[in-house]
């Protein structure tokens, strides 16, 4: 049975699930009715971070245009431009054993593509979540429903995996950003030119 988390909670992933090495990170959301005439396009992104909370290089920013990072240990499923239907809208596959040892943290975010041009924000998004699934058994082991705490934000750091004493843990972050993906990328040390 999955552990359901609240904002700010941290939980062991590999210690409480011995042998767990391959996981699927599922991110999902729904958009509220919106009469602005523009479609919503939400995107999942991943930042592989060193001990200083920065990417080692730009290839550690994994998203729909760079689907693989961490020497192949992290793979993005690709862009889902509508988010329609039930279940995960975008997924990230991670081989925990293959993540380079100098990657201390793997941060997962959801952003709204062209949010400022389309006058969109997370106040118009509902049912956003991040979940961790055991790839071998297809069992959900951790779930964090982000709730409706956002209004003007255009990017959310949903959660992060991080190393602690040789094990992987999960932190339900739930932090909103007003500067979208570009702001997140800058904060994490990505050279966005």
Mean pLDDT: 89
Shape: globular
Strand content: 35-45%
- Whole-angstrom Rg: 16 Å
Structural class by secondary-structure content: mainly beta
- Give a short account of the largest sheet: 7 strands, mixed
Number of β-strand runs:
13
List keywords for this structure.
six-stranded antiparallel sheet; seven-stranded mixed sheet; globular; 42% strand; 193 residues; 2 helices; mainly beta; single chain
Ordered list of secondary-structure elements with their pairings:
Blueprint: E1 3-5, E2 10-12, E3 22-31, E4 42-49, E5 61-62, E6 68-69, E7 74-76, E8 90-95, E9 105-112, H1 115-118, E10 125-134, E11 140-145, E12 155-164, E13 167-177, H2 180-187
Parallel strand pairs: 1-11
Antiparallel strand pairs: 2-13, 3-8, 3-10, 4-5, 4-9, 6-7, 7-8, 9-12, 10-11, 12-13
Q: Please, could you describe this protein's structure?
A:
- This protein has 193 residues and is mainly beta.
- The protein has 2 helices and 13 strands.
- It has helices at 115-118, 180-187, and strands spanning 3-5, 10-12, 22-31, 42-49, 61-62, 68-69, 74-76, 90-95, 105-112, 125-134, 140-145, 155-164, 167-177.
- A 7-stranded mixed β-sheet has the order 1-11-10-3-8-7-6, with no helix packed on it. A 6-stranded antiparallel β-sheet has the order 2-13-12-9-4-5.
- The longest helix is centred in the last third of the chain and has 8 residues, at 180-187.
- It is globular and about 50 Å long.
- The protein starts with a strand and ends in a 6-residue tail after the last helix.
- The model has no long low-confidence stretch (mean pLDDT 89).
